[in-house]
Amino acid sequence: MKVLVATEKPFAKKAVDGIRAIVEQAGMTLSLLEKYTQKEELLVAVADADALIVRSDKVTREVIQAAPRLRIVVRAGAGYDNLDLAACSERQVVAMNTPGQNSNAVAELAIGMMIFMARNQFQPGTGTELRGKTLGVHAYGNVGRLVAGLAKGFGMEIYAYDPFIPAPVMQSEGIHVAATLEDLYRRSDYLSLHIPANKETTGSIGQALLSLMPKGACLINTARKEVINEPELEAILAQRTDLKYATDVAPGNMDALKAQFDARVFATTKKMGAETQEANINAGLAAARQIVGYLQKGDKTFCLNK
Ligand code: NAD
Predict the structure, then answer these.
(1) Which residue owns the Cα nearest ligand 1 atom 41?
(2) What is the C-alpha separation between 6 and 255, in angstroms, rounded?
(3) Ligand 1 atom closest to Cα of residue 204
(4) CA–CA gap between residue 146 and residue 136 (Å, rounded)
(5) pTM of the model
(6) What's the CA gap between 162 and 140, in Å, rounded?
(7) d(CA 82, CA 2)
(8) Please, which pLDDT band fits residue 295 given cuts at 50, 70 and 90?
(9) Strand partners for 235
(10) What pLDDT sits at residue 207?
(11) Which CATH superfamily is domain 2-101+275-297 in?
């Protein structure tokens, strides 16, 4: 059986070595397609693959159709908006992600961004401290929970909003539960976004919520660009000259934002939340183990298209 690792942005070598060891120990073969630039290269490579590991690579209907033997695709990472789940289901291809494996990397970046913005992007001038400020955690999943834990160490007061996590769970971890989403934004000196991009959340963060934030507040987005209503973000930054925005997922209008708002906005040059050696290795190895677990034992833990 052939496991294909198809990565426009390759894994670290140590991760590839680890994936190979797991796959070969299970009696399967590993095939690599790295740094490809044309979709056609992926379409050719999947033709004889039984299993596929990707990172942010798009697994479209066309890719699934080009892979007649494919039984499982694993997104090595958390967000799986790059997988066409309906197309997978139609062909009975199991789709999985590797939740939690890169969360610490993203959480550390979110905290780093808060400090960076509090200190005027490390430019000369008087900054502020995180201690005593209120952090709003929008979605208390794997990343949100870790951000909250780290922020406690900085002496921040933490509120969270996540309708899918029971309040007692958050409270038992020392987190205040925001009564509503509006309540969360109203309180947050820093608001860290950790919602997935889906039908409900796309474009959901705009003027209505951002206008509620306290004076000098900063929105940190390590989630997805799609959750932001970009024109409304631009409008509120123009209206509220005290607001700041830092993101790991640059908006389409980043050049316009930078030109107008300069030190109040920041975007990483390329999405780098999960770009640590540790996260690379954790997510890659987890993907390989999940493939072996499914193909050999039918283990469907982390299956996204049940
Ligand atoms: P997760 O699945 O562990 O957690 C997501 C949380 O969102 C869950 O607790 C869920 O209950 C909650 N949620 C879902 N819909 C919601 C809604 N409408 N309102 C409030 N809460 C809602 O995911 P995660 O691993 O914590 O990842 C969080 C986000 O970070 C995702 O958008 C993911 O794509 C993104 N991410 C980015 C990077 C990066 O490189 N910057 C890396 C990993 C993950």
Answers:
(1) 273
(2) 31
(3) 18
(4) 13
(5) 0.89
(6) 6
(7) 22
(8) very high
(9) none
(10) 98
(11) NAD(P)-binding Rossmann-like Domain (3.40.50.720)
217-269 confidence digits (pLDDT tens): 999 999 999 999 999 999 999 999 999 999 999 999 999 999 999 999 999 99
Instruction: Report which residue type is found at 251.
Output: P
Whether residue 279 has pLDDT greater than 90:
yes
> Cβ of 28: how many Cβ atoms within 10 Å?
18
The owner of tokens 């929105």 is 219
Q: What is the pLDDT of residues 98-141, one digit of tens each?
A: 999 999 999 999 999 999 999 999 999 999 999 999 999 999 99
Task: Pick the residue whose CA is nearest to atom 19 on ligand 1.
Answer: 162
Ligand 1 atom closest to the CA of 195, numbered from 1: 7
For 103-267, CATH number out of 1.10.10.60, 3.40.50.720, 2.60.40.10, 2.30.40.10 equals 3.40.50.720
Q: Where in the chain is the domain with CATH 3.40.50.720?
A: 2-101+275-297, 103-267
Give residue 160 CA to ligand 1 midpoint distance, Å.
13
Q: Take atom 35 of ligand 1 and give the residue whose Cα is closest.
A: 223
Specify the ligand 1 atom closest to the Cα of 100: 25
Can you tell me which atom of ligand 1 is nearest the CA of 99? Answer: 25
Average pLDDT over residues 185-192: 98
Q: Does the C-beta of 76 come closer than 6 Å to ligand 1?
A: no
**Cα 184 to middle of ligand 1, angstroms:** 17
Q: Is the CB of 143 under 6 A from ligand 1?
A: yes
Among protein residues, the one with the nearest Cα to ligand 1's atom 31 is 196
Q: pLDDT at residue 306 above 90?
A: no
User: Ligand 1 within 6 A of 221 CB?
Assistant: no
Mean predicted confidence (pLDDT) in 8-13: 93
- Rounded to 5 degrees, φ, ψ at 52 are -135, 130
